[in-house]
Design a protein that fits this description.
With about 600 residues, the chain is α+β, with helices and mostly antiparallel strands. It folds into three domains: about 10-195, Heat Shock Protein 90 (2-Layer Sandwich); about 200-330, Ribosomal Protein S5, domain 2, CATH 3.30.230.10; about 440-605, 2-Layer Sandwich (Ribosomal Protein S8, Chain: A, domain 1), CATH 3.30.1370.100. The chain is built from 20 helices and 25 strands. The strands form six sheets. Strands 1, 2, 3, 4, 5, 6, 7, 8 and 9 form a nine-stranded mixed β-sheet that branches. A hairpin with a 4-residue loop joins β23 and β24 (about 505-515). About 40% of the residues are buried.
Length: about 600
């Protein structure tokens, strides 16, 4: 078969398959054109998920008749004035979006510049371009795309439902809104209601307000700012607390030189920064904005321009990880404010699904009723002290101090962020009184994080302090696990754990980290062996060592069920306040929840 040139319209339709794979991709291209045109207001309307109609109206610079005629030609653009592909300073640059859309749909454009007395319009249908005509128009550009993929009906079979396509459009607009908080965005249409993001000031505060609108009002109370500069890269944004996590990565936003991207390098850096702060199956909520010289990043690596390639990826990864960890360290012991809301929901009495609650019960009573819902009684160990005096209670204080018996506490401790310890419940949870509420602390989870951070500090400074066992302990293991431990003996010695061979399938433990003295040695060694088995040679050494220290810290912490004295509980609270990342344990679970007095009053119908 002889070689021949393809028909120009067929070429445009092939290009459209790369640029416009679904309605959301068309919306992205059109909105990016509006942003590049200097628009300060962009309004998007869709019907049928974008398949029947996409309308994008902006107040940007507009186009002259000559520019409009060229704009619908392939490889015609105003965004490469010097033709330098290594210095891309706009969102679009290929000059393929408008002709590609016009090749598979009906494209109508009406535009006017500020200097022109009247506007102009053009229609492209199925790749056939009409003439440029005069038209009444306001300053800016209005683009309407109707019957998307009408010229390529086979592609319609691959579209999802109108609702799913509409949600994809909404997600595209949200990501562009995060990247450009100084622009007002509006989106309306079927299956999405109306989204409206007012223009914000160009600052960290403006970005924070835009993020609160996009990610939810709770994000503002559960995020910390990021601001860092390194070797030509400026990083800014806001990152959510580790305990403020989500089931998917939909709330992770990256912006590079004004371009929203989904980059594997950046996502991997974020996961590395949250590695020992969040459950492995959860994702943070954050927005990171990277600004750099355009020559340091290649945006021309994907037809949809959603991926980028950095000239120095290791530098960018290190910048992201260090900036996030520094920001979270400044947050100290803070945990998500949503923990208290979940606690209230768990404490509220369940309503019977078979019948609605009586009308009278919907109004808070003037005083608590004498009957009704009663908290279930949990099994508990025998109590001491208060129970012996004839009082039945779940509070366990061994022994209660004079201040606690008198119902008072040091005002300075009550004024502290985590308050003053007042009781221990079920040998596991510490109840502390704060100035305006109460705090419930999981003593094992909290102390586990404290021990872990102490071990990391020791390793980074003078080395982990070791304690010689008076009687070395022999631990029997699977022969493979024992060999794995012995092969890592030098590394483990640097972590404070000295192991020696003691025959086939057995190791001898001579020294342990001082912070773990008195712990369960056998369980510790088994956990360390499991951690070594999970080592991936591609994982950085620092992360592998931290994984081992995390396993070790679990065995050196206060166990659930151990009764603490009041001074021990208060000492734990004060150490939590002084230790970064203490708002969550090594596995990412919260170490405490806080209930404000107003929350408790609502729980009892006082508000």
């Amino acid at each position: 078969m002889p070689v021949r040139r393809l028909d120009p319209i067929l070429i445009d339709r092939i290009a459209a398959g790369e640029v416009v794979e679904r309605p959301a991709a068309a919306v992205k291209e059109l909105v990016e054109n509006a942003i590049d045109a200097g628009a300060r207001t962009i309004e998007v309307t869709i019907e049928g998920g974008g398949r029947r109609l996409i309308r994008v109206v902006d107040d940007g610079a507009g186009m002259s008749p000559e520019d409009l005629a060229l704009a619908v030609e392939r490889h015609a653009t105003s965004k490469l004035p010097e033709g330098d592909l290594s210095r891309i300073e706009t969102l679009g640059f290929r000059g393929e979006a408008l002709p590609s859309i016009g090749a598979v749909a009906r494209l109508a454009i009406v535009t006017r510049t500020a200097e022109a007395g009247t506007g102009v319009s053009i229609v492209v249908e199925g790749g056939v371009k009409g003439p440029v005509r005069p038209a009444a128009a306001e300053k800016g550009t209005r683009v309407e795309v109707t019957d998307l993929f009408a010229a390529t009906p086979a592609r319609l079979k691959f579209l999802k439902s109108d609702r799913a396509e509409a949600q994809a459009v909404a997600e595209t607009v949200r990501r562009l809104a995060v990247a450009h908080p100084e622009i007002r965005f509006a989106l309306s249409g079927e299956h999405i209601g109306t989204l409206h993001y007012p223009a914000e000031e160009e600052s960290q505060h403006g970005l924070a307000r835009r993020l609160a609108r996009v990610l939810g009002a709770e994000f503002a109370d559960n995020a910390v700012p990021v601001d860092n500069v390194r070797e030509g890269f400026a990083l800014a944004g806001h990152v959510g607390l580790p305990t403020f996590h989500r089931a998917t990565a939909a709330h992770v936003h990256f912006v590079v030189n004004g371009r929203p991207v989904r980059d594997k390098l950046l996502l991997g850096a974020v996961r590395g920064a949250y590695a020992d702060l969040m459950p492995g199956d959860r994702h943070p909520a954050l927005a990171l904005v990277i600004a750099c010289d355009p020559r340091l990043v290649d945006v021309n690596v994907h037809p949809a321009k959603t991926e980028v390639r950095f000239r120095d990826p290791a530098l960018v990864r290190g910048l992201v990880i260090s900036a996030i960890k520094d920001a979270l360290a400044r947050a100290g012991f803070r945990a998500a404010t949503t923990g208290g809301l979940r606690t209230l929901e768990a404490l509220r009495p369940p309503q019977s699904p078979s019948r609605p609650a009586p009308v009278a019960s919907r109004v808070p009573p003037a005083r608590p009723p004498a009957f009704g819902w009663q908290a279930p009684v949990s099994p508990r160990p025998p109590l001491s002290g208060l129970e012996e005096s004839g009082q039945t209670t779940l509070l366990e204080l061994a022994p209660p101090s004079a201040d606690m018996r008198a119902g008072t506490a040091d005002p300075e401790e009550i004024a502290a962020p985590l308050g003053a310890a007042r009781a221990q419940v079920h040998g596991t949870y510490i109840i502390a009184q704060t100035a305006d509420g109460i705090v419930i602390v999981d003593q094992h989870a909290a102390h586990e994080r404290l021990v872990y951070e102490r071990l990391k500090r020791e390793r980074a400074t003078r080395g982990i302090a070791r304690q010689l066992l008076l009687i070395p302990e022999v631990v029997d293991l699977d022969p493979v696990a024992a060999d794995r431990l012995l092969a890592a003996a030098d590394t483990l010695e640097n972590l404070g754990l000295v192991v020696e061979s003691f025959g086939p399938g057995a190791v001898l433990i001579r020294e342990v980290p001082a912070a773990l003295a008195g712990g369960r040695i056998k369980a510790l060694i088994q956990d360390v062996a499991d951690a070594l088995a999970e080592w991936d040679s591609a994982t950085p050494l620092e992360e592998r060592l931290d994984a081992v220290l995390s396993r070790m810290a679990c065995h050196g912490s206060v166990r659930a069920g151990r009764r603490l004295k009041p001074e021990e509980m208060n000492a734990l609270l004060r150490e939590m306040e002084a230790t970064p990342f203490s708002g969550q344990c090594n596995h990412g679970r919260p170490t405490y929840v806080e209930l404000k007095l107003s929350d408790i009053e609502r729980l009892f119908g006082r508000r």
